[in-house]
Amino acid sequence: MHIVAHKGMTKLVKNVYFDESGFTGNNLLSKDQPFFSYAAVVTDDEESKQFVDYIINKYSIAAEELKGSTLVNSKRFQPAVDEILNHFRGRMRVVVNEKKYALSGKFFEYIFEPVLAAKSSIFYNLKFHLFISNIMYFSLIAKDEYSELLHSRFEDFSRGKILVNSFIEPVVGSKNSEIMMDIHDFAKNNISIIEEEYEGLEGTGIDKWLLDLTTTSLYNLLCDMSSKFGTLRAICDSSKPLITHQDSFNEMIGNDEIVFETFHDKKIPITFKLSEPMILSDSKVTHGIQIADVVAAASIYVLNKKKSKEKYHSKWLNHFEDEIFYWQCCVVPTPENLDPKNVNNHLNRYILQEIAERSRNSTPVLDDIEKDIIRISRTLAMLR
After folding, report:
1. Separation CA 254–CA 110 (nearest Å)
2. Residue 21: strand pairing partners
3. How far is CA 125 from CA 237, 311, 348, 366, 377, in A?
4. I need a surface site. Which of 7, 183, 243, 333 has the fewest CB within 10 A?
């Protein structure tokens, strides 16, 4: 723990160490690793070094540093993981992202959002973004060819691997995907607005890591940890996305208050307090990062249903679900946004139909859209 003198006052600063598991950068369709997880642990250099040395000695770990993925997948070393999770109880937090669902969410963010921006609050209030993300994701995992193609083209386009023409060219031979067709046609007919959005990011550094999940995960964890522990000193395992984005985090240095916003009836912190610039370090020399690596690996382990019969699985899963996962900011599917019993979901399906049809006819997408939404709602109410 550090003590920082600040404008005639002294304040306690907590060290928080961060690391990830399942990193595949911009490649979110990776078959080998469906989850990306980012973990935070509050400790300090002394405690973490003593604890890592203790674990290495007690369990005769041959390596010089703790590697989470090795420990969580070995029956011999799982008791060591259990000790770590017990010792740091109340001081760990994780944001987990299901990568394919995250890609569906990014599709909404970069394809729909620029077009709907002027009236975006209408669509967000109806949870239209969650309807689109979930319908795309569940179609993708159901192996809907149209959805697979839209996702892989979007990923390639966002990574600069294909040009815009290849992204929007017609999808041939995929049947029964009216919803996917509407989504494709919406993108195709609004492509100039979408391209402007991409061009606006060129040269900012953001364009290189458009689909990466590191930055938002870390940002959300810093907000959460700072709301609990106050001013932080952030020590992260260095990675290319963080090197690119570190300036945006450092804007919070010396910030004195944490701002909260209400999302879905819950107050969520959206700023944090940093004592100094973010420290990018190497796990070999920073024991706190090794602890965070173990927590991140354990978070992915508990989400693997194939491991559910193993000794520690249910104990750890309960621990993560109850207090470690920062659920409000985890990027995981929400099937309730497709539930046919929910009137809103029907409404969103017809809104998609409406804006796709307008796009095909070159009618301005947002003109009097409120009136059409009310009209559709009334029609649906009469049909119930």
Report:
1. 32
2. 37
3. 37, 43, 11, 16, 14
4. 7
Do β-strands 35-43 and 92-98 pair in parallel, antiparallel, or remain unpaired? antiparallel
Q: Are residues 170 and 224 in the same domain?
A: no
What span, in angstroms and rounded, lies between the C-alpha atoms of 378 and 196? 36
User: Are both 95 and 217 inside the same structural domain?
Assistant: yes
110 φ/ψ angles, rounded to the nearest 5 degrees? -100, -15
Can you give the pTM of this predicted structure? Answer: 0.91
Burial 113-131 (b: 16+ CB within 10 A, else e): bbbbeeebeebeebbbbbb
For 61, 280, 318, 319, the CA distances from 312, given in Å and listed in that order, are: 20, 32, 10, 11
Residues 6+ apart with CB under 8 A from 279: 233, 234, 235, 236
Q: What is the pLDDT of residue 254?
A: 87
Spatial distance between the Cα atoms of 341 and 337, rounded to a whole number of angstroms: 10
Q: What is the CA radius of gyration of the chain?
A: 23
Classify strands 232-237 and 9-21 as parallel, antiparallel or unpaired.
parallel
Contact 279, 234 (CB under 8 A): yes
Same domain, 258 and 280: yes
79 & 216 share domain: yes
Which residues partner with 17 through β-bridges?
A: 41, 235
Sign of the alpha-carbon torsion through 207, 212, 213, 218: negative
User: What's the mean pLDDT in 255-281?
Assistant: 88
Rounded to the nearest 10 degrees, the angle between the axes of helix 145-158 and helix 99-107 is 80
Rounded Cα distance between 259 and 272, Å, is 8
Residues present in the chain in total = 384
> Is residue 10 over pLDDT 50?
no
CA–CA dist 187, 359 (Å, integer): 9
Residue pointed to by tokens 């395992």:
237
Instruction: Give the total number of structural domains in the chain.
Output: 2
Give me the domain span that covers residue 82: 2-99+212-329
Q: Are residues 321 and 356 in the same domain?
A: no
